[in-house]
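Section 5.1 Outputs to date
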Amino acid sequence: MKWNGKLFGLIAALLLAPASQVGAGDIHDAAGAGDEFKLKELLKQKPELLNEQEPDGSTAMHVAARLGQTEIVALLLTYKASITVTNKDGLTPLQMARLRNHPKIVDLLLAANPSAEDKMMVLRDALHEAIMKNQPDKARSILDNNPGLDLANAKNLMENTALHFAAFAGNLDLVKYLLGKQGKADARNKEGNTPLHAAAATGHRDVVELLLEQKVAINETNLMGVTALHLAADRGHEEVVKCLVDHNADVNATGKSGVTPLLVAAEKGHLNVGRLLLDHQAGINALGDKMATPLHFAVRNGDLRFVELLLAYKPDLTKKTVDGLTALALANQKGFVAVVDMLKKAGAKE
């Protein structure tokens, strides 16, 4: 029998090859698969794998937290695996478990003495989520179980606090509760909006009234120069507009573009809001974009009822836009015959 040289070389290579090397990928695979036996064997052979990181910065603990392997997380904790190491996205295992919605793992890691920053971030996000999902009992539990953390004023990436979310959701009881936890009623987010802006924009009059009782600045503007009254007028929240003007909100406040609440109401066609503002001395000839007055906006929309409302308050019919158009000229240009007739009867001239 003749030996095949190539076959002999292959067999020799296999026989003489060293035992396979244990690498970081093996422990990550075991963690992801929930294989406790393999994980124990790997750590027995090579303990330094415990906190070994993959190219994306993940440890075995990250993998288990991401995939919801509760038993593996518990096992890794008995080996004193790090829970503070971050992956390339800057996430710890605790933050990973929170993002992937694995509450049992979150509880395990919270009990493992995470960093104060890590704990604050995760509980803050859990609190905000509970508020937005209308889970007030859960929100209160998070606050009550962590008295040493100022969660009521913790800000997320957009710098919103729990009060911003509760005001936006219109949860009056939770707003009261957060205020009782020293939540700051005048907190500003990244866009400069306060909880009052949030409540006004979403039409929650009861929350607006409560916040005003806290002496928040009613005419506070966001970074665009917009007040709570602008937002309520823009969305047609008549009851909120009434509440604000009854509390002496500035009906002629101008945003950075010079827009007043009446201009906003006219543009959006919110008739009752417009009437409320006019009854509280809103400027009938206020100038907005391209020097247009509220009447120009109503005419442009062909809004006969709003035009009629404005005419009752004696606007200046000679005002022209930057394009040289009076309200009558604009109505003619648009072909709104009924609006043209109404303006002429009010004294508008060609």
